Each structure stands twice: as structure tokens, then as C-alpha cells.
Amino acid sequence: MDLSVLWFILVTVLFVGFFFLEGFDYGVGILTPILGKTDTERRVLINSIGPFWDGNEVWMLTAGGAIFAAFPHWYATLFSGFYLALFLMLAALILRGVAFEFRSKDNNPAWRNMWDWLIFAGSLVPALLWGVAMANLIRGVPINGEMEYVGTFWSLLSPYTLVGGIAGLLLFILHGALFLTLKVEGELVNRARQVALRVGALAVLALVLLVALSYSQTDLFTRAGAGVAYWGAVVVLLLANWKLRGGKYGWAFGLNGLAIVLSTVAVFWGLFPRVMVSSLNPQWSITLYQASSSPYTLKVMTIVAAVLVPVVLLYQGWTYWIFRQRVNPKHLEY
Amino acid sequence: MGELLLARWQFGITSAYHFLFVPLTLGLSILVAIMETLYVRTGNETYKRMTQFWGKLFLINFAMGVVTGIVMEFQFGMNWSGYSRFVGDIFGVPLAIEALAAFFIESTFLGIWIFGWDKLSKTLHAACIWLVAVATNLSAFWILVANSFMQNPTGYVLRNNRAEMVDFGALITNPYVWHQFPHTVLAGFATGAFFVMGISAWHLLRKNHTDFFQRSLRLGLAMGLISVLLVSGVGHLQTQYLAKTQPMKIAAAEALWETADPAPFTVVAAIDQERQTNRFEIQIPGLLSFLTHNSFKGEVKGLKDVQAEQEAKYGPGNYIPPVTPVFWSFRIMVAAGLWLILISLLTLYLVRAGRLEQRPWVLKALVWTIPIPYVANLSGWIVAEIGRQPWIVYGLQRVEEGVSPGVSAGAVLTTLLGFTLIYGALAVVDVYLLRKYAAQGPVEAPPVKPQETAKEVSLWT
User: Fold this and answer.
1) Which of A112, A274, B396, B431 is the most exposed place for a label (fewest CB within 10 A)?
2) What is the pTM of this model?
3) B132 near B106, Cβ under 8 Å?
4) Which of A47, A94, A183 to mutate to test the interface with B (most CBs of B within 10 A)?
5) Scanning every residue of chain B, which has its alpha carbon at the shortest distance from the alpha carbon of A149?
């Protein structure tokens, strides 16, 4: 196999891993001020993702680094093109990151409240924007013959991409709520369950709408596998809702995670072999072959990834094992 | 202002701001790891409290470093897409390796360290902070490999309108990085060490927890003294190396317009960049020749001659960087380094004589020395980066060719203002928290209940 194809698959895997992992900590962040009525409850919620969120975010940084190293033209076009949207995401991630660390470092209720809402907004904005970004990737954006983005911030917003954003947001909130049913105790589990039930139904609606709109808005279904993955996401999301109703939270969490995985796979499969779709002229779409690094660089990166990725998976897996128990409200660190 | 200038300001502000937090992370992570190791080895609870007190300050600082670091990885694509296309084949590789080999370790094991006090054995817990410390320094290595390619490109060919990697080995054995990496990391160690010494001195002045802060101060002193001596030694070698590889940078750092043999060292100068001369200067004869050649004779090239050489090589153009900021930053960095050497030698003498606490002015001076390494760090980067102008990749790409062609000045201005506002607000919060926790001092161990001690002393609440 061509190494650039391998790297396209690896980038897909990094995004899949990123959405699966960071998806639930975005969800928990959004739910923190909503589910947590008291200070201790809020702390329990934040502590449930405490040991994980930073490591999860590194999946995004690694995906960004991998795109830069393996597909410099993709990195250059995407990041300079989605400029203001990326700025909003960065601003949100900056505030969210320090909020986890700073929130409980002062007893003033106004201080804590401020950081709680920053955790909320800092999780909501990227959760929404990632869906918008994925929808734009597959729908196509104005790219000229010189690989340059020629639209504005507003060209990224359309009914279709907003549906993408909302579908992503709802999937992530559901992912977070289901994660909480596994990680907290008592009354909070009930509240997480209530939210999951409501958000779960909405997520099904949004995802069905997104998949249906994709027939007219994208050429995703010209790739049979992508279409199967997309509808597969809908099916497993329905199953997740069904398991949730039966109180099988572990299953529900896993199945909803699978829905996130499948819808991500659908987008990247639909893109292949393009990395950026031009809405102006199909000839101007950028393929992974045009965007890729030299064979030598890809070889170096492949060796590096083959050595390091398994190790990373091992120790990240170990973290989830160490902190497998539900959060104990008597031992809160954040 | 045009897009180029705004994009340059944005890079300058966001990277300088990011680099306020990085050096302290480099040094303090190692100091905290040493403290926890001492705790594991001796079982002395004071070392555990030291680990937790300094660890908390470390975490506040680390959070700022992490979030401002995300911007660094994204803005090459956002503001510098021309640059990213041109060097991505090479430059992206150390960045991706940094994420895979360092960021994952840092973030994962720091999470375990913060939350795992009562879930891991003591040894394993200490091993986690060592992994964090090693990984942060490893991260510095990879990002400096990337920066060194911009300073002294190695292991590439020009092909397909871009620089392509042909020798990964040459990239990581770039002599530039093997000067810059030890210099940067040692400067980070010094930053951490003087941070610990300064805060300890503040408490010793007030006679708070004297045993605790004496031990802390001695640890900081050992690391600080060794680091500042080594960092100046490496700096000296680096100057000699730069005189060969980037003569323009050295000539600018010395405001040396005409080639001279022997070359004098200019202590201060009033620089006139337009007329290419110094209106006023105080010089020490032969010293610059000595610094660059270890001999009081030896030619050092002046700015005008290097300019002529580069015009012959790269075509007409102005290859002289802004001399004033490079010249003065270099002097500020060196002066800061000398101050750090002096004060650490004095502190060493007083500690050995057992008289440090009878010299409140020295303790006060140590408190006021906390910002000095920061000044040195930033001035060093100004020399390195402004001294490389007008190049973004030395000899291969000029700064104006690197900027994103499709991004408007208005967009850059928006994000520049946005980042500056957020960073400004966070600076206030960060300083507030650091002061608060530094002044609060260690939390006393609660009355010993044998079976519960490990849980009860947890400070992370």
C-alpha cells in the first residue's frame, strides 16, 4: 500500500480516537453546571474526567501534527482556510484547559461559578465546531486552483453544516452523560440518565437528518462503504438508546461511542482519496497524493508511529484501568 | 498594519507568552521529581510536603503552558501556510513526534500523578512525575529540532518547490540543536531553581517553616548554580558556533558594522541602522576576537561585509536584521546570566557558612531574582529569532514568503486582539494563584492517624 494512503488511514484513526475520547469529556464539561447543583457535585463531575481530559486532547494535537507531517498542503489549506473558526476553538480550549486546573483553587463562589461556565462554554464551542468542520470537509469549501481557501468565515456556515454541528454536539453530550452513569454515584447517576434519555432521542433525530441531507449535499454515498458506515451509525445509536432505557449503561456508552466512530469513518471514507473538497470545481479538490509529504518523510513517520503508537495505547489504557472506579466525593483533586 | 506585520506580532506575542511558562515547567518538574524521590528514599514527610507544595505551583504553571502550546501547533497553518507548504515535509515531523513521544507521556502521567496519590505505590507514583519531567524536556528537544531547521537547515533537498527531507539523521544531529537544546533546557533548570530559591527566601525572611524552606532553598541552589554555570559555558560555545554558521546574527548582536581583526567587544552603543554606523560606543579592544576565537587576534565579520556576501549568494536585498533589539537583548541576557552566577555563588557561600538567614538583604535579593531568568530567556529568544530576519528559514525562505496568502489583515488583527486579551486576563489569574499558593506555604500534616495518613495529607483540594 502507498504510504500516503496508510497515513490517510492513520489520520482517520487519530480523529476517531480523538472524538471517541474527547467526546465524552466535552459532554461532561457541558453537563457540569447543568447536572451539578452543589459545589461538591460539580467537583465530582469535573473529577470524573480529571485524569483523562488532557491525554484525550493530545489525540487532537497528534492528529494536527500528523496532518502537518504527512500532508503539509492539507494542513496549510485547512488551517488557513478555517481561520476564524479555529481561533474560536483555540480560545475555547485555552479557557477550558485552565478552568479545570484553576476552578477549585479559590473558595469564592463567584470564582468557581465563572470557571464552571467557562468549562461549559469551552466544551460546547469545540463540540459544536468539530461537527461543523466535519460537515464542511465532506460538503466542500471554496478552494481555488492554487489550493487556497477563497471563502470567508460565513461560507463555513450553512443549514447542512449547522445540522452537522448540532448532531456532533448532541452525540458528544450523550457520550458524556453515559460516561457519567458509569463514573459517578447516587443521585447524579439518575440525573445523567434523565439527560441521556432526552438528548439520546434528539441525537437520533439530528443524525438521521444529517445522513439524509448528505444525499443531496455531498457525494458521500458514491462510496458504498461510507454510506454503510453512516447508516450503521444511526442503527447503533438507536441500539444505544434502547440499552440506555434498559439500564445497561456500559452497553449504551459503548454503542454510542461506536456511533461516533462510524460517523467519523463515514466522513473520511467519503472524502477518500480527497483531503479537501473544492465546492468551486471538482478538479480543484486536493487529493491525498497531491497533499502528501515525500516518500522518505512518510517512511520515517511510519517507523516512528509503528514504534510509539502501541506504547501510547498501552499506557493510556492503563490510566483508564487505574481510575476505573467511580469518583469518590471524599477524594477530589480538582 | 499589513497582514505580514500583524502575523509576525501574533507569532511573537503568542510564542513569547508560551515561553514564559515552558522554562519553569522544565526546571520545576525535575525539582519536584527529586523531592518526591527523596521522600520515597527517606520516608521523611517533609519531602512529601515539599513535593506537594512545589507540585501545586508546578501544576498552576503547567496548565498555562499546555493551553498556550496548542496555539503554537495550529498557528503555523493559520498564519504561515506558505511556510507550512514549503517546509512541512521536514518541519511537521519533529512536531508530530513531539506530540506522539512527549505530549502523550506528559499529559497521561501528570493525570495519574495528580489523581493517583492513594492509588499507586510510592515508587510508582514518583516514577510518574519523573516521566513527566523527562517528557517535558524531550518535548523541548523536538521543538528545538524544528526551530534549528529554521536556523540552520540540514538534511534536505529543494524539490517540488519545497524543502524535502532526505536525511532524518542530519535533522536531529544538526549542530545547531545540540547547542540550542542544552542552552534552553539549562536555562529552564535555572528558571525553576531560582523560582524555588526566591519563594523559599521570602518565607525564610518571615521565619515560616524554616526547615522546609531551608531544604527547598538548598535544592534550588544546587540546581541553580550548576545550571547557570553550564548555561553560560554552553552559551560561549554557541556564540563561537554562530560566528561560523550565522555570522550575520553575531555581527548584529555585537553591532559590528565593519569587519575587524582584532575585533573589540562593544559594551554599549547608540545604533544607527539607517546610516549603518554607531553614533556612540564603548569598546573593550580584542575581546570579541577572544570570545569568538579564544585568542585576542582573529577576524570577526562586520554587518556590511556579510550583507555583501549574502547579496552575492541570494541576490539583491537587505539581509541585515534589526540591529538594536538584537544587540541589547544579547547584553540583557548576558547581564542577567552574570547576576544569576553572582547571587548563587554568594548564596552558596552564606549557606555553607550558616549565615544566610542573618543576611536579609540577600534573601530579599533572591526574591527579586525570580523574574531575572525570565528576562534572560526572552532576550535569548529575541536574539535567536530577530537575529535570523529577514529569513524564516535561513537562506531558503524569507518571512514574507511564508505568510498565508488567503488570510486578510482584518482576520489576523481579530485573532491577535483575541489572543492578547485572553492571555492578558489569564496572566492576571495565573499571577494571583501563584502568589496566593506561594505565600500560603505548605499545609501542615494533620495529626497522624496511621492507617489514613496517605489520604489525609492530599493537598489537591
Assistant:
1) B431
2) 0.92
3) yes
4) A94
5) B406
